[in-house]
Amino acid sequence: MRAVTWQGTEHVSVETVPDPILQQPTDAIVRITSTAICGSDLHLYSVLGPFMTPGDIIGHEPMGIVEEVGSEVTGVRPGDRVVVPFTISCGHCAMCGQGLPSQCETTQVTERGTGAALLGYSKLYGQVPGGQAEHLRVPHADYGLMKVGTELPDDNYLFLSDILPTAWQAVQYAGVPAHRTLAVIGLGPVGQLSARIGRHLGARVFGIDPVPERRAMAERHGIEVLDLNEDAVGEIRERTQGRGPDAVVDAVGMEAEGSPVAGLAQTLAGKLPDAVAQPLMERAGVDRLAALHTAIDLVRRGGTVSLSGVYGGAASPMPLLTMFDKQLQLRMGQCNVRVWTDALLPLVEDPEDPLGVGDLVTHRLPLEEAAVGYDLFQRKHDGCIKVVLDPTIASAPTTP
User: Residue 367 belongs to what domain range?
Assistant: First the structure.
């Protein structure tokens, strides 16, 4: 089959690789019909190279058609149309039972000290082949695979694999709807959806991003947008009686702009031999924290900061005096996808499209054009906000 493979820092290529096969009786094989490039994929692309091996199949936002199931899989059968969550979870261990499948004890990558294994996401999370491919092996298919209808296009359902439940969890962790004002820092795909979810749940939502196309998209959905270069913090305070919003979602994470020293450290670590870079990043890694520090500064006293952007630094400095003095609540964590998808399914099937999933994808490309998609997404060229790869087409790249 054809699959997107990591070949080095900022270098992916589509290669012919062996077809996946059933390895466990709880596995399923899915033929992929759509698979998206996630902002987290850019971390593999440019920052987390020391944890990658050339040839790794990447991608963790797929959906498709079940082609084969193991002998113990009863929840889906060949021919079913399914979404594949990016977390690999059993559904029956103590952590899954507590609503924390992202910490699944069956698939935890204990040798790395991390939570549940993830599709296509480096040695840190199990080095499981990912979903930017023509076919995908899905472990623990009974719990993981989500059956969906056959009438609506893939784009209605695809984001249930990751970014939509990630955004929903971020807003739930932010305390909306009890909190009535919400700021979202970063209007990439997760930030867009977080802002729209906040509006859907009744909050007044502010969105901050330096990219005009992202601000324009958010504004179409009733978000009050501000340029990062403006005095966004001061302006939002003015609009919230001088206090700041009740809650802030940081939808940026480790690759924030405005952190030159940390950015240089990440770049240098990525150029070191893996044997040196891996322990350095695990024990002394420092993130770009501009977005997080802005969130802490912006939120009102007694408010909540919710992190959906991924951070990976082990030694990132935090303004604990300010956090303590402002009496903040900080919530974060890998998304517990299957906890939220049942609530989200009616919303993505609603003809009114209350979360605007039909207004997110800016570029649809054949799988073979994955390298183009990664470059567009990373550099934010051509108004790129969200890229979907289609393994079923071989035509030239198109935009919706």
Answer: 2-162+336-390
